[in-house]
UniProtKB/TrEMBL annotation:
The lineage of its organism: Eukaryota, Fungi, Dikarya, Ascomycota, Saccharomycotina. PPIases accelerate the folding of proteins. It catalyzes the cis-trans isomerization of proline imidic peptide bonds in oligopeptides. It comes from Cyberlindnera fabianii. GO terms for biological process: mitotic spindle organization. One of its GO terms (molecular function) is peptidyl-prolyl cis-trans isomerase activity. This is Serine/threonine-protein phosphatase 2A activator.
Length: 473
């Protein structure tokens, strides 16, 4: 197998050393948004998401991730469990598959434990009494406690798996993405930009080899699953407002990645593939939704909608209802990815809140590795700046993991990257000293583990919010 290297991509090499830096705001206007479309950070996020989508294809969420009582009541379990080939999970306590995985994958357990500590904070900060439609002020106290605790938690749980230089710089840079993954402390809202921050957090950890080479789709389903559990707890406890919602004409009030993951999980289950037919139309059937809600992210997201919204599904969720008319899950996945490119990566109101550091998501050109122009909030162009720090704060960075030839769209690349169509994780180019074991954390490899051969290009940022799924026929 030919590995992707600088020699066969024809793309200039980026600087071999990078310096951690506290993430800063870089997207202040439309010009900066255009620069973002050419950035290392965006290309990196696209490649990481694409690899995760490929890893979760055809995989079920391990049992134990989504406790049934978070999705539906015992009354619903009894009401909608009739006439099903597989019974809706009942409320039982037993060792789950997730428990087994956490014993085998300590770095996955570290993420679960980190989210668990944040969840415990919610219990310590009850909502203030009194009527308020959106945004209970107690949420700000929760954010403050999170900010005060995150350094210690990162040192305790994540740093043991980090074996590169400058631990303090690493923690300072990566913590921004997890702290900002749970909504706005000021606006008391939550939306796809915060969900993006969590993707960035996992991507950053993956990039610096906190995750082992044996990380797989079930691991990512666990790490995303516990995150969604906490976010929903925050939404329901503090009545967080949907951030930048399009109302009923948006895909979902809060989430998007969860539908991408769920659609990939369903590949192979529709009539165009081998295996039992699970039609997208079944999202309007509560019995089926509850049946699959603990196994599939897409149906899990719909189950949460049923929990928080009343009325007919086609009335409160017309876009999702429209999508349910699409015949194949592969087409739904392509459409969800296309929509994500336009509505998240390509939308100024969303990505203006994404910050850029020195190593994990640098403000550099993806093709040249050179710093992108910096425009201040006063709309005055400035020369790119370089972060200065002692030599001990640099970590070796050779080939950028997302460096791929241009030519095809983001969503097409993700579909091509599915298992059997892309090199397995372990077949990426590795440093000579890297061991062959499943969990390698000692030294950085020459490429990020999710790197694939495919290219990605950015969709136009001028696309307006759709009133129906653009791929639905």
């Amino acid at each position: 197998m030919t590995h992707l290297t600088l020699a066969n991509t024809g793309i200039p090499e980026v600087p071999t050393k990078a310096t951690y830096a506290t993430p800063e705001k870089r997207i202040h206007d439309s010009r900066a948004l255009q620069n973002f479309q050419q950035s290392t950070a965006l290309s990196e996020l696209q490649q990481s998401l694409g690899r995760i989508v490929a890893l979760v294809e055809g995989k079920d969420i391990p049992d134990g991730v989504f406790p049934p009582d978070l999705l539906y009541s015992k009354e619903d379990q009894e009401k909608y469990s009739h006439d099903l080939s597989v019974a809706i999970p009942v409320f039982e306590k037993a060792e789950s598959k997730m428990d087994t995985i956490l014993k085998e994958k300590p770095y996955v357990k570290a993420i679960v434990d980190l989210i668990g500590k944040m969840s415990d904070l919610v219990d310590q900060v009850p909502p203030f009494p009194g009527p308020r439609r959106y945004g209970n002020m107690a949420c700000r106290e929760w954010h403050t406690k999170l900010e005060e605790s995150i350094d210690g938690w990162m040192t305790q749980l994540i740093v043991p798996f980090y074996n590169m230089k400058n631990v303090d710089g690493f923690v300072d840079e990566v913590k921004w993405y997890i702290v900002n993954a749970f909504g706005s402390k000021e606006r008391l809202d939550y939306g796809t930009g915060h969900e993006l921050a969590y993707l960035a957090f996992l991507t950053g950890l993956w990039k610096v080899r906190v995750f082992g080479d044996d990380v797989n789709g079930e691991d990512f389903l666990i790490m995303f699953g516990v995150y969604y559990n906490l976010v929903r707890k925050l939404i329901l406890t503090y009545t967080l407002e949907p951030a930048g919602s399009h109302g009923v004409w948006g895909l979902d009030d809060h989430f998007h990645i969860i539908y991408i993951l769920g659609a990939s999980q369903m590949l192979g289950s529709d009539s165009s593939k081998n295996g039992p037919a699970i039609s997208p139309k079944l999202v309007s059937n509560k019995s089926v939704v509850y049946q699959y809600s603990s196994r599939n992210m897409y149906f899990n997201a719909v189950a949460f909608i049923y929990k928080v919204k009343k009325g007919a599904f086609f009335e409160h969720s017309p876009i999702l209802y429209d999508v349910s008319n699409v015949k194949s899950w592969e087409k739904i996945l392509k459409g969800m990815l296309k929509m994500y490119q336009a509505e998240v990566f390509g939308k100024f109101p969303v990505v203006q809140h994404f910050y850029f550091g020195g190593v994990l998501f640098p403000w550099t050109n993806a093709k040249t590795g050179q710093p992108l122009p910096i425009v201040s909030s006063e709309d005055s162009p400035k020369e790119p700046t370089k972060h200065q720090s002692p030599p001990t704060s640099t970590i070796p960075m050779t080939e950028s993991p997302w460096k791929t030839p241009a030519g095809s769209s983001f969503q097409e690349n993700v579909i091509k990257a599915a298992p059997g169509r892309a090199p397995p994780l372990g077949e990426t180019t590795r440093a000579p000293w890297a061991s062959g074991s499943g969990s390698t954390h000692g030294q950085p490899s020459t490429r990020a583990p999710w790197a694939t051969r495919q290219a990605q290009t950015s969709a136009s940022s001028s696309q307006q919010p759709p009133t129906r799924a653009p791929w639905a026929k």
